[in-house]
Design goal:
alpha+beta, six-stranded antiparallel sheet, 13 helices, about 55% helix, extended
Length: about 425
């Protein structure tokens, strides 16, 4: 090689190395710039400032525990004891928790030497270890206390509301009522409510013990009381899960039935008219370009809320997706199999039935079963908008901002439902399509 050639190769090599160095430095720099943009665009500093670890701890504890409310109505002086503060979980007349005592002065022992006393004239005393005695009185809409200005983080006080959070429980005071929350692990009343004769009875006694309810057998009565549990609503939940699965099934199968013939119109091999093909493909683009949630809102305005609206939203969106998938599958069928069927004298419809459909059935079934599984999750969110299924119950439980153990229960059921649909989809795929060894 001449000196000129060597210099050219050297210059080219240096250029390539420089480009690689710039690329190696440029890509991380772009990623860093992108993360900086996200940091400010999503207001991460503001989110961190607004985040409340105390609320997070309360929320987490509520998912695996239950609380008993001891409430005094400051207007009437009436005392009330109820699980989760619900009327359906209220203690029967004349009964109260064993950690509440007294008649004129109601004393609530939260444990750990934390004592709350309900005194006359809407006065309250709170004893907390290591802290001065807290005295409060509700007068009209205001709350007067002996608390100073320099308060610890676990006390939030104003002239309208006082909130005290301790490891043993929480106390809230307003002008209208004074309330104590005592936490216990587990989902209480999950099996039987307080009005059931089976509440507090062990499983062994139900199965093998003497008859508890004179009018019903133990097993039949226990199943009936559990199924009709007014607090946890097991019957309503089962119906809601059925609605969710039905929404996903009707939407997915309806979309597949509509998309199959339209797929033939969109496939070049089976639809020689270009205008017809283009129109069908643009139709697919339109219906799948709008998300199912948007279709849900539109259809809810047109037909009203309900599971059928959710099923139609899934049907419309999946029709576009299935149409595109099916038309692409039809474009790739083997022409020899179609010619073999045609050689027997088969008519065009018979060619499609015996020469085309058997080739695309594995693709069709695989996609339909996958979308059935995926739409089960989507139906949960759609149900929250259209007013049907387990999604609606989950949304209602979240909006109440108090029964987070129910939220955890619904989320657990949704996960189990999706796992079941995943297993069912795989089982059906193996039965209908077969599995490779």
């Amino acid at each position: 090689m001449s000196a000129v050639d060597i210099n050219a190769v050297k210059a080219r090599s240096e250029s390539l190395f420089l480009r690689k160095r710039l690329f190696a430095l440029g890509v991380p720099a772009l990623v860093l710039v992108y993360f900086i943009y996200i940091f400010f665009a999503f207001d991460v500093p503001g989110l961190m400032q607004r985040a409340s670890l105390e609320n997070a701890r309360t929320l987490t504890s509520d998912t695996w525990s239950h609380k008993v409310h001891v409430t005094r109505d400051n207007r009437s002086g009436e005392m009330r004891y109820a699980y989760e503060g619900e009327r359906k979980g209220e203690y029967p007349e004349g009964e109260r928790p064993d950690w509440v005592s007294g008649t004129d002065i109601i004393t609530v022992d939260l444990g750990g030497d934390t004592i709350v006393r309900f005194l006359s004239e809407n006065r309250t005393e709170i004893e907390i270890p290591g802290f001065d005695l807290i005295e409060a009185q509700a007068e009209g809409r205001t709350v007067t206390t002996n608390l100073g200005e320099d308060l610890p983080d676990w006390i939030n006080a104003s002239d309208r509301r006082v909130a005290i959070t301790t490891p043993e429980g929480r106390i809230t005071l307003t002008g209208n009522r004074t309330e104590v929350f005592n936490y216990f692990p587990g989902w209480e009343l999950f099996w039987f409510t307080l009005d059931s004769p089976y509440h507090g009875v062990g499983l062994g006694q139900i199965l093998f013990g003497p008859q508890i309810d004179a009018e019903r057998g133990n097993i039949a009565g226990a199943i009936s009381d559990w199924w009709n549990n007014a607090m946890w609503r097991h019957k309503d939940i089962a119906w809601a899960i059925g609605e969710t699965i039905l929404m996903a099934f009707l939407g997915t199968m309806g979309a597949a039935i509509i998309a199959l013939p339209l797929g033939f119109l969109a496939a070049k091999r089976f639809s020689p008219i270009m205008l017809l093909r283009a129109t069908t493909r643009r139709l697919f683009d339109f219906v799948r370009g709008v998300d199912a949630l948007i279709w849900t809102v539109v259809l809810a305005r047109a037909f009203g809320p309900g599971p059928l609206t959710g099923a139609l939203a899934i049907l419309i969106t999946d029709t576009g997706t299935f149409g595109k998938i099916f038309s692409e599958a039809l474009e790739n069928v083997d022409q020899k199999q179609i010619e073999g069927v045609a050689s027997t004298g088969a008519k065009p419809l018979q060619r499609y039935r015996f020469g085309v459909i058997p080739q695309i059935v594995p693709v069709l079934l695989a996609q339909i079963l996958y979308f059935l599984e995926s739409n089960t999750r989507s139906a949960t969110i759609i149900g929250a908008i259209t007013g049907g299924g387990i999604g609606l119950m989950l949304t209602q439980a979240i909006q109440t901002q108090k029964d987070w153990e129910e939220v955890a229960y619904y989320i657990l059921l949704i996960v189990l439902m999706v796992m079941f649909m995943d297993w069912l989809s795989g089982w059906l795929r193996g039965k209908l399509i077969g599995r490779k060894e």
